[in-house]
Amino acid sequence: MLSSATLNTIAEQLHTAGWCAVDDALPKLAAHRLAAHAIALPDAVLHRAGVGRAAQRQTLDTLRRDTIVWLEPNNPADAPDQLWLGAMAQLQAHLNQHLFLGLKAYEAHYARYATGAFYGRHVDAFKGQSNRFISTVYYLNADWPSDANCGGELLLYGGLEHKQHPTHIAPMMGRLVVFLSEGTAHEVLPALRTRHSIAGWFRRGSS
Ligand code: OGA
Ligand code: MN
Questions:
Q1: At 56, is the pLDDT very low, low, confident or very high (cuts 50, 70, 90)?
Q2: Which amino acid residue places its CA nearest to atom 8 of ligand 1?
Q3: What's this model's pTM, rounded to 2 decimal places?
Q4: What distance in angstroms lies between residue 200's CA and the mean position of ligand 1's atoms?
């Protein structure tokens, strides 16, 4: 499902920069299927995500305002979920083969940012506290402008460079962002219209 050109680009840029963004990561039809599915998820199915580790889970209004629902690896009838998880299984195999990352598992959730929702600056994994190793975000927003007009941009600080000034990435349909979970700070600016994505994480050990 991911082309070998896309797989090679991701591996190469992860290796050299610690992050990458690729457009049209999946065929257009697949992207639209995933987007239609995410948009149709009833609000009642989505819930506020906790922040922090299991022992101290709490919803922090000041940090994040998106609502999420996890993709289900064990539901073969849920075709859109399998479509995405299949693509990420392909990426996992490729990264293990070419970068020897030893990725063992992948988990992902759909996320909906209602108008005004954001996710403040954070890292997805702290060294020694988690085995989340690679983060992925795939965007499902048709007709999202490439400039800052609709807000909702991902700001990525660093990768291997630890930049002062973040890279701004608009959440455009079909764009896939992949980065090292440990030490890559990032944030989502307030969305000015409803914003959909699939955020996911590869783990090295079992959770
Ligand atoms: C996350 C996250 C970024 C985005 O869910 O941890 O950082 O652009 N998402 O949706
Ligand atoms: Mn994050």
A1: low
A2: 154
A3: 0.93
A4: 9
Cα 159 to ligand 2 centre (Å):
13
DSSP-assigned letters across all residues of 129-145? T--EEEEEEEE-BTT--
- How crowded is residue 180: how many other Cβ atoms within 10 Å of its Cβ? 21
Ligand 1 atom with the shortest distance to the CA of 152: 8
Report the nearest atom of ligand 1 relative to the CA of 122.
7
Q: Within 10 A of 143 (CB to CB), how many other CB atoms are there?
A: 8
Cα 112 to averaged position of ligand 2 atoms, centre (Å): 14
Tokens standing for 58? 């709490």
CA of 187 from ligand 2 middle (Å) equals 7
Contact present, 134 and 95 (Cβ < 8 Å)? yes
Could you identify the atom of ligand 1 that is nearest to the CA of residue 195?
Answer: 10
**Pairwise CA distance, residues 86 & 80, whole Å:** 10
Cα distances (Å, whole numbers) of residue 9 to 16, 75, 104, 110, 128: 11, 31, 21, 24, 28
pLDDT tens track for 61-106: 788 999 999 999 887 767 899 999 999 999 999 999 999 999 999 9
Q: What is the DSSP string of 69-134?
A: EE--TT-TT-HHHHHHHHHHHHHHHHHHHHH-----EEEEEEEEE-TT--EEEE-SB-TTT--EEE
